[in-house]
Amino acid sequence: xxxxxxxxxxxxxxxxxxxxxxxxxxxxxxxxxxxxxxxxxxxxxxxxxxxxxxxxxxxxxxxxxxxxxxxxxxxxxxxxxxxxxxxxxxxxxxxxxxxxxxxxxxxxxxxxxxxxxxxxxxxxxxxxxxxxxxxxxxxxxxxxxxxxxxx
Length: 151
Prior knowledge:
Elements: H1 2-7, H2 11-35, H3 40-57, H4 59-70, H5 77-83, H6 90-99, H7 108-125, H8 131-144
Helix pairs in contact: 2-3, 2-5, 3-6, 3-7, 3-8, 4-7, 6-7, 7-8
């Protein structure tokens, strides 16, 4: 235990280090998708599938990330701020709002947080489901919404 304490300053450092490579891969994949000119909705779809897979493969850290995301002042808060999975989507949302593919309902940062943390909750709630199914479900709700347009 003494060695672990010397290697990691706390729970946040453990979570951050465990997920760092996966988060880096997500960031690079989104940048690559944007660089090759994919539409923002396709980038979002691909990102949500990758993110759901990351959550599915790292279930032991999901609870820590969820708790840190909703609890300011927790010892995990700094790790979540450094990881901040929602930041990866901000440029995609900004670009989609500028191009008119996405409506501007919230700021890009807030929209990215809503999408990211909703997916995280859904993955945590559906551990037995296929991550691709979960991301497709999210895409359906995110892109199509639930408003039928009738009064």
